[in-house]
Amino acid sequence: MNQLLNQFIDYLSVERGLSANTLEAYKRDLTKFFGFLDRKSTTSIEGAGPRDIIAYLIYLRKSKLAIRSISRNLVAIRMFYKFLVSEDVINDDPTLNLDSPKTGLSLPEVLSQDEIERLLSLPNSKEQGIKDKAILELLYATGMRVSELINLPIDNIDLHEGYLKCIGKGSKERIIPVGRKAQKTVKKYIDRVRIKYVPRGNSNMLFITRLGRRYTRQGIWKIIKKYSGLIGSNKEITVHTLRHCFATHLLSHGADLRSVQEMLGHVDISTTQIYTHIDKARLREVHQKFHPRG
Description:
By secondary structure, the protein is mostly helical.
């Protein structure tokens, strides 16, 4: 099983161009599935059928795994079996007629514009504060994913013209405008802070640590966590929250869905449409709160 798994991961990496994080997630989910089959005395992947997969999904549900996570596991299993069929390892795909669990509509947490302004005003004028503010401003200004931010070369941002070139999922390239406030904040970071850190390392990324090294996802997460408790909101704020705010605030001010889809790097516009549901949900809350018969 492990040999087939390694071949599958190599296929996803070379042929599909999936990111390292996605590959790791598929490998982790499938390793758990193999462990389940092994405990059920199913010694070969060819011997597993639809009943085994359904039993595994039931096992995950009884383990109180979220529906979304169960769906992700099933996606990994489906892709693995399609690969096995294409490689003539097996003749029939046991996942062919299995339905994905219904996840329902999950609306991401979004900050109001006032809350965003408070968040962006928190960093101080010291070195660390200047860098933190630049990171927060750029995340909100562009809607980039954290993986895209930490892998953004300094040569890929043009502060004079006001845009950056981002490499997203599947190594797909897109151009994202950068607003004036973010331009100003990032330039201040480059001129006053980054220039001091560069000689200490060898990274060409835009955002680097004091040692001149590339930031990690955890490093960015710690920055968000540091300020999230200071804005006077009970909402859970993560790195992805700023991406949600970027999309929601654009749409609420009249941006068209296709443009937002392009800036977010969504392949399917239905993924972007969740932000229109957020706006409708907010309108409903306002109506219920202020209408005399709400």
